[in-house]
Amino acid sequence: MPTLAFQSQRQRALLLQKDTDTLFFDAKYLRMKSLPFLLFLGFSNLLSAQGDDPAIPPPEDSILPEKALFDFIKDGGVMMIPLALMALIGLILILLYMLTIRRGAVVTNRYMNNADSLLRKKDYMGLISYSHRRSEMVARLTTKTLQYLTDNPRASAAEVKEIAESEGSRQSSLMAQRINWLGDIGAIAPMLGLLGTVIGMVQSFTFISQGGSPGNLPMQLANGISQALVTTASGLVIGITAIIFHSYFKGRVNRLLHEFEAAATHLITILTTQMKEVPASPQPPQTTTPAPMPATEMYTAQDVVLPPNS
After folding, report:
1. Is pLDDT of 282 > 50?
2. N or C: which end of the chain has fewer CB within 10 A?
3. How far out from the chain centre does Cα 149 lie?
4. Residue 137 · residue 107 · CB < 8 Å
């Protein structure tokens, strides 16, 4: 009996020690497993507390200085002066073309109705006077054609048509050449920006070759590269804008020239048709004079009867 009691008591001690080791191992395992989470939670609280604390200012290196537009242009160097002039000229041309390249400057329904009515009445002088008071392109063509016809009344329909076509080509070329200024600005502005880039890079490498101070070398190099990038960006912006508006106005000019050609063809067709319907002027009657009689003796000696002697 004492032996059995001792064995049971020993077994209970072993079981109790085993349970104690198991609990200690589980607590240690839980602490090791939750350690990263506790570290992350503490670090997050620290960051939030630092961000909410107004007494801790942000680092000065993270604050980028704000530049005005004038300072940005000034950083571009001397090449920004011609680029600014080209931008101003391009803006003026765009506004001018918006106001002048329109249908009212080429042909209007009012003028076409009045011109058609005067032509059918053959009131050429009245149409010339009316066209002088108008500013449409088709009015200038009509004035030129009718002035030639009135100055040369014996001109043929083919000659009048040739004069009208010549004047129409001149008016069309004048309108088409006006928008070429925007195309020139679109081609020249990027080249000026590239020239500014080259100048900025040359200045940077010149400073390096002259042995500038090592402390100021990065700043000088960054200044030259900044000038190069500013002029390039400015030239591209001006050039792209000018090319976009040049394409827009080119399409508008082509559309207006088609309307101008149709209106001019209508008026010239009426005029040449009237010239072909005019009958030829009658020739004056030719009077024929009788041919002179030959100088022969009208009477012979036998035809003369002398009276008898009384």
Report:
1. no
2. C
3. 40
4. yes
